[in-house]
Amino acid sequence: MSLGRLASIHTYPVKGCRRVDQVAAPVEPWGLAGDRRWMLVDQDGIGITQREATALATLRPAPLAGGLVLRAAGRVDLEVAEPARGEQISVRVFRSKEPVSARAAGRAADQWVTALLDRPARLVWLDVPPTLPERRLLRTADDRVSFADAYPLLLTTAASLDALNGWLADAGEEAVPMTRFRPNLVVDGVPAWAEDGWLGRRVRIGSVTFRAAEACDRCVVTTTDQETGVRGKEPLRTLAVQRRFGQDLLFGVNLIPDGDGKVAIGDVVEPLP
Question: Is 249 helix (H, G, I), strand (E, B) or coil?
Answer without folding.
Answer: strand
